[in-house]
Amino acid sequence: MISNIAELTVPEQILLAADQLEKQGQSPFSAEALIVASWQHSPRTFGLKGYADQYPDSNKVLSSIMGEKGLARRGWLVKMGQKLYALTRDGRQVVRRLLQQEDEPAAAPSTFRVSRDQEKFLLGLFDSTSVQKFEENRKQELTFADACRFWSITENMKGDALDTRLEQFEQQLQEFDRLFAQSDAELSNGRIVTAGDLRVLGNIHRYMEDRFGRHLNLLRSRSGKR
C-alpha cells in the first residue's frame, strides 16, 4: 500500500483521486469533481499557492488531464462528454499497481467485448443529450426531441412502429442486464461499462417514458387517423 502519497507523481495522484470518485459511484465524473477530489487527497500538491488548505488550483489538475503528456493522451482517462471523464482499462491497471506491492502482479480484469452493433448502441446512448443532461443535473431541461434521439424514434413515427421500437429498446437493455450481470465490458475507446451504468440508462429510459407519456400517446393516437 502507499505510505506517502507525496512520493507519487502528479498524474498518479490525480489517477487515485479519479479511482476514488468511481468507487463512490461517479462514472463518468466531471473535471470539477476531479479537481476537488485531487485537492482533498493532497492539498499541498493541488492547493492554490498561498491558500493551499482553502482552495484548489484547478489549472494544475486540468493541465495534467489535457495536453501532450496528459492523462487522456496517456490513455489513462477517456473523455466521455464536455468536461466529463472516466478511467480506462489502462488507468485502472495503473491504480491497481499503485495500491499493491510492486512485486504483486495485477489481477487480470474481468471484462468482455460487446459486438459492434451493441457498442454502437451504447455509445449512442452515452453520447446523447439525455444522458448528458442527467449527468449534469439538468433533467428539467430535457425535451421530447432529446427523448426521441435517445430512443432513435421520430415525431412522425406511426403508432405500431413506435411501440415496436420502444419494445426493441427495452429488450436491448434487458439483454445488456444479463450480459453485464457477471462482468464489465470494455469498449473500443477504452471505457469500462458496468452494470451500474446500465441501471442509469434504464432509469433515464423510464423517467422519460413517464415524463413524455402524453407525447407518446399522441403519436400513437395519430396513427389511427388515415
Any chance you could write out the topology, listing elements then pairs?
Elements: H1 10-23, E1 29-30, H2 31-41, H3 43-46, E2 47-48, E3 51-56, H4 58-65, H5 71-74, E4 77-81, E5 84-87, H6 89-99, E6 111-112, H7 116-126, H8 129-135, H9 144-151, H10 159-179, E7 184-186, E8 192-193, H11 195-211, H12 213-222
Helix pairs in contact: 1-2, 1-6, 10-11, 10-12
Structure report:
This protein is mainly alpha-helical. Helices cover 56% and strands 12% of the residues. The chain contains twelve helices and eight strands. The strands form three sheets. It has a three-stranded antiparallel sheet with strand order 1-5-4. A three-stranded mixed sheet has the order 6-7-8. Strand 2 and strand 3 form a beta hairpin. The longest helix is centred in the last third of the chain and has 21 residues. The protein is elongated and about 65 Å long. The termini are far apart. The mean pLDDT is 85.
